[in-house]
Amino acid sequence: MAVVTIPVALQGAGTPYDEYTHFDFIARVAADHTIPLVNDAVGQTSLQYYSCAGGAFGNLKCGAAVQDPNDAPWDGDSAATNNQPTYYVLTAIPTWFIYHATPAGWFTAARVANALWLMLFAYMCVIAACWMGAFPAAAFGGALLASINPMMLLQSSSVSPDPAACVAALACVMVWWRLRGSPSSWVRVGIAGLTALVALSVKETAVVGLFAIAAMETAWIHRTLRGAGRAVADRVRAAKAYLPVAVLGAAVLVLHIVGHSFIGPLLRGSRPGHSTMADSLAANQPALSELLAGPYFDLIKVFTSPTGQQAGLWFSAYALVLFMLASGGTMSLLMQAPREPHTADASTIRALRMGIIGYLLIFPAAFIVATSHVSVAFWQPRYILPGAALGLVAVSLGMGRRSAIFWAGVGTIAALIFLAFVTGGLQAPA
Length: 430
Known about the structure:
Blueprint: H1 2-11, H2 19-32, H3 44-51, H4 86-101, H5 106-131, H6 136-147, H7 150-156, H8 162-179, H9 185-202, H10 208-224, H11 232-268, H12 276-283, H13 288-297, H14 313-333, H15 345-374, H16 385-395, H17 401-422
Helix pairs in contact: 1-5, 1-17, 2-3, 2-4, 2-5, 4-5, 5-6, 5-8, 6-16, 6-17, 8-9, 8-10, 8-16, 9-10, 9-11, 10-11, 10-15, 13-15, 14-16, 15-16
């Protein structure tokens, strides 16, 4: 993954998704050792870099001693300072070390630091799949296919919390899996729920981890209740057994909302005033019904890149093949047990797959409705990147040896195609 992402980060092809605002938050933590106010405007480090980065960036003037945030796009509004600081603080630590240990500037250091999230994700994919009984070749193939996704590469080689959200979501699954042998459902749910709460503080799109925990815990409880009688006492005991799952979902979501909306602004302070960005989005917003239908027609776009080294004809074709392979494999393996069907984990792994599918069906609409009530409804295909990444890992579970080798081979070929593209061996037609 280092061979793939760091060259792209150094070549300067960046994401169009608010990279300068995410970089601004990291730079303030790493360089200024401060956490910005909630809804604060973009700071000087980011403005100074973008004023001289080449090409017009709002009305910023390269060489000015102090940049006026009002001269930046959206009057300096930041899409990042409203977020919780978890991702930015964690990414600022390696950014600081890279800046002081290499000739790289703050911006390049932040990009390289962000690429570390993809490396961590790829490593965790292999470990998690092997824990769940996958052949090593299948685990390797799933990790490679999830990591080589053009959208994942774009966001990992830029400054973006999306790869960190994938790490956080997978961490939820891994924590629950290691605790599944605990005799207390409350212990499993409590620790996994805390992990999910941290994951949501990285980015809300990591909520797929919460879906996965709830699905696996439900399946695990259902297995333990097999053979229970139909007497009233047995039904009451069964209802109590499922109580931790209900508490998990409600508690994590409520605590996240309270932390994001009340505790964060109270501790960090907030900047009053209206948002030019929100006003512009509201003025050009389509009907809510159109927004709700859009994500389900655009699911394939999570496997594509709108810009950068990985955009173009070759990667659009690759993305289509990957989507067909992943969706076809998911459907064929959905009801298939792991390679050891006699184990109690078979139903749990099927539940994991169902949890991911449930996330893909529910989350886009829920996200749009929630944002429409808070400020302005919006949606981008990259928001389901954690679900797509976990889905590719889940597909690798249950494969036989031959399928695992094929899966690993497809991932390797995809990686070689990308490397050939980056080094100039392949050229996408204009």
